[in-house]
Design brief:
This protein has 140 residues and is an alpha+beta fold. The chain is built from seven helices and four strands. Strands 2-3-1-4 form a four-stranded antiparallel beta sheet. The two termini are 17 Å apart. The protein binds adenosine-5'-triphosphate and magnesium ion. The site of adenosine-5'-triphosphate has 11 residues, from helix 4 and strand 4.
């Protein structure tokens, strides 16, 4: 498996509880390298565009409100099989179903306020990284 990059967001529920370092430790312990990282306040427009795939879902408005409710940390993670590895250590979307030791099992509060986002394919990772990072801000 070649070295891959994936896109990660530490969500507002986690930044509010000062969990950035603890979540980053889970990623780093899994062999993922943080090669780009920025703390931002997402605009309404950015959140709507980022989650446009869920526009028809009943929770879309709630999701956009949540993602703009506080600071987030946007990240580029790099490593062997990074997309799948990251999804594995994030755990299931619903923390009640997340495996022991995963970020969502450890820290998520609900299916909506679930602490982290991770790209679900290499193709989407490229699109999502480009939405928040220029190549000059990524150093592998
Ligand atoms: P993400 O895309 O954030 O990494 P995911 O891929 O595990 O999460 P998706 O199905 O893509 O899950 O849903 C995107 C996000 O929408 C979830 O992470 C969660 O914050 C929110 N969400 C999903 N399902 C629900 C729901 N039933 N009620 C409220 N919010 C939800
Ligand atoms: Mg998703």
């Amino acid at each position: 498996m070649a070295i891959q990059r994936t896109f990660s967001i530490i969500k507002p529920d986690a930044t509010a509880r000062n969990l950035t370092g603890k979540i980053n430790a889970v990623f780093e312990d899994a062999g993922l390298r943080i090669v780009g990282q920025r703390r931002i306040r997402m605009t309404d427009e950015q959140a709507k565009r980022f989650y446009a795939v869920h526009a028809e879902r009943p929770f879309y408005g709630e999701l956009v409100d949540f993602m703009t409710s506080g600071p987030v940390v946007v990240q580029v993670l790099e490593g062997e099989n990074a997309v799948a590895k990251h999804r594995e250590v994030m755990g299931a979307t619903n923390p009640a179903e997340a495996a022991e030791g995963t970020v969502r099992k450890l820290y998520a509060q609900s299916i909506g306020e679930n602490s982290v986002h991770g790209s679900d394919s290499e193709e989407n990772a490229k699109i999502e990284i480009a939405q928040f990072f220029s190549e000059a801000d990524i150093a592998g």
